[in-house]
Protein: Beta-ketoacyl-ACP reductase
Organism: Polycladomyces abyssicola
Amino acid sequence: MTYSLAGKVALVTGASRGLGRADALALARAGADVVITDILLESENNEEVAETYGPISQVMQSAGVVYAEKTAEEIRNMGRRSMAIRMDVTDRKQVEEVFRLVKEEMGGIHILVNNAGTLDHVSQIEHQNDAFWERDLKVNLTGAYNTTKAVWPIMKEQKWGRIINMASVAGTLGGFGQASYSTTKAGILGFTKSMALEGARYNITVNAIVPGVINTEAFQMINPKMKERMIQRTAFKRPGEPEDIANAICFLASDHARYITGIELNVSGGIELFTF
């Protein structure tokens, strides 16, 4: 089964690496033109931005694991249109301006993948960092609200839209020491269902992907013993690959999924099952 997204314009947030980059490339291979957005771009001095958003951003910046513009170039080499734009999903005015620009330059926005997120705040409740709690709410939850609100009138006008939100098994199962992350990802599921109800009358579907243990750059930074414990929780006893998430996104973005909305699709290797 192939998913033809020819003639569609997709915008992916947090697409400079990891799942977002894989999603963008897969959407382009399926025929879509793709806009890459991220807080980090290779051609800009991102040190202050990375410091603002926490340890993971700082590590990725210092290690040079930022591929926003490279991803856009790869997509253009496929014969698709693409551009990389710096966008902070917590900055509502900036989000509105970027979406206005994309509509003008690309002719519309048909697919929105809300991938941008933080996942570096890990500590038990008495040691949770209050500032990071607020940051996680703003990025992971309010960020998806901001982008969805900005794209909504565009999709209504088109009478066609696909919004795919990135949740997590931490939002469905909870996560020890992950109060802020789990809370925001559980919130994404409620947001997804509400938007699915509002979008149906305009031919806009809204769904959530629930990833489990995925072999991204961030996963590689985890303590090896903890990584092995996480892997052993899955039914397959191995991590998933970013392409596994990207393939699910391409399906939900396609007309093959036109009667699917409001779901939480586990792409988790069975980590939510009773494995032992």
About this structure: The longest strand covers residues 204-211. The two ends are 34 Å apart (CA to CA).
